[in-house]
Structures are given as C-alpha cells and as structure tokens.
Design goal:
Oligomer: single chain
Helix content: over 70%
Distance between the termini: 113 Å
Strand content: under 5%
Order of helices and strands: HHHH
C-alpha cells in the first residue's frame, strides 16, 4: 500500500523515514487512513442527525403556524354586524338629507 504524500512529507521532515522500516511506515499509513475514515464517518453521522433535527423542527414550525380559521358562525355574525352598520349609516344619511330639504 503506498504511503500518502502528506505522511511521507511529515516523515521526511522529522527524519523518521531513515529510521523506520517499510512495514512500520505501512502500519502508520493504515492507522492514519482508519482515523481519517473514522472521522469522515463521524462527520457524516453528525450531518445526518443535524439534517433530521432540522427536518423535525421545520415540520413542527409548519404545523404550528397554520393560519387561524374562524368558525363560520363567527364570520356570519361579523358579516351581519357589518351589514347592519352599513344599512344604519345609509338610512341615517338619508334622514339627514331629507331633514335638510325641509
């Protein structure tokens, strides 16, 4: 198994390349690869958990933010009141106009 260039550079810089045997270098490279793969798996797991949490939070927000729907009876009462007010205002204005003409 070839040793990654970053490992070779580190070993050359520290002078370990001259002292170590090839099997020791291979063992270190394998350990480094296992650690790197392990960290990548941990990161992937954390990302999946974070995505699942975000999806749950988004779903909760969407269900909790439903628009408030008024009961039909309340809507009818409000519409009836508005209609009565409109009619009342119309007849008041008519009465005022007719009283001015006299």
């Amino acid at each position: 198994m070839p040793v990654p260039p970053s490992v070779m550079t580190a070993m050359n810089a520290s002078g370990l390349n001259a002292v170590m045997e090839q099997d020791e270098i291979d063992d270190l490279a394998k350990e480094l690869e296992e650690v790197t793969v392990g960290k990548a798996e941990e990161n992937a797991l954390r990302l999946r958990e974070a995505a699942a949490d975000n999806a749950r939070k988004l779903k909760q927000e969407q269900t909790s933010e439903k628009p408030e729907v008024k009961d039909r009876s309340v809507v009818k009462l409000l519409a009836g009141k508005a209609d009565r007010d409109r009619k009342r205002d119309f007849f008041r204005a008519r009465m005022l106009r007719s009283s001015r003409k006299r």
